[in-house]
Amino acid sequence: MSRILVLGGTGEGLALARRLGPDDIYSVAGLGKRPEGLACSVREGGFGGADGLARFIAAAGVDRVIDATHPYAAQISANARHATFATGTALWALRRAAWSAQPGDDWRMVDDWDGIMAAIAPFRRPLFTLGREPLQHLDDIPASQYWTVRCLDARAGTERARVLADRGPFALAAERELFERERFDVIVSKNSGGASTEAKLEVARERGLPVVMLRRPVLPEADRSFRTLEELLSNLP
């Protein structure tokens, strides 16, 4: 029996899970909505680090791990490399291509939170599309700024920030309306790649807004890496 373990959390990972059979496993962190209608089993929550993942792989009889996590999920990708090496299990990775700056873009590349704060210092109304990290800093917002944080968490904002609990895909028309209504003057983003959240970059380009872009982490090598889901599926036995 062949058994695949998909480490998910992306749209591509879920699309892959919909192609799996009852012997396979789709794993998600459990931070969003539990996927439904899958033929494979679904596992939610962490594994307890690389060693815990290795124990799970061995106990479940997994013979192929597919890393379809977010491009910024560097720790789980490192854990997957360690665990598959320790267990002699094949590791495939779906590495979504990054966005590239286009004519008219004003990207300011940064490496960490301190770089983000320095880059947005001259601005008043940033839109953060980094996930949950800005929520840890809502008490440190400069008096001259009002933040909008778009992420999966539904939680109250503060006098100086509001939280938009939403997830992609985001349509271009809706993004235009949001930008017009909220009058953002800078966008803070991860270079996630893919079409689901790319519309904000087009609107920023249209409005001449700078984008503070967090560089991608360097991810470990996999036995095989694929840029698209279609390429990966065509190589599955």
Question: How much helix, percentage-wise, in residues?
Answer: 25-40%
Instruction: Report how far apart the termini are.
Output: 13 Å
Shape type: elongated
Order of strands side by side in the largest beta sheet?
A: 3-2-1-4-5-12
Rg, nearest Å = 19 Å
For the largest beta-sheet, the strand count, sense and barrel status come to: 6 strands, parallel
Total count of strands: 12
Q: What would the average pLDDT be, to the nearest integer?
A: 93
Which blocks of ≥5 consecutive residues have pLDDT under 50? none
Question: So what's the oligomer here?
Answer: single chain
CATH architecture of the largest domain: 3-Layer(aba) Sandwich
CATH-derived topology of the largest domain: Rossmann fold
Strand content: 15-25%
Helix-strand string: EHEEHEHEEHEEEHEHEEH
Give a description of the structure:
This protein has 237 residues and is of the alpha/beta class. It has two domains: 4-97 and 218-235, Rossmann fold, CATH 3.40.50; 107-214, Rossmann fold, CATH 3.40.50. It has seven helices and twelve strands. The chain has helices at residues 11-17, 49-60, 74-87, 113-120, 172-182, 199-207, 229-235, and strands at residues 4-7, 25-28, 41-44, 64-67, 90-94, 107-110, 126-129, 147-151, 161-165, 186-190, 211-214, 224-226. The protein has a six-stranded parallel β-sheet with strand order 3-2-1-4-5-12, sandwiched between helices. It is elongated, with a radius of gyration of 19 Å. The model has no long low-confidence stretch (mean pLDDT 93). It comes from Lysobacter korlensis. It holds the Pfam family CbiJ. This is Cobalt-precorrin-6A reductase.
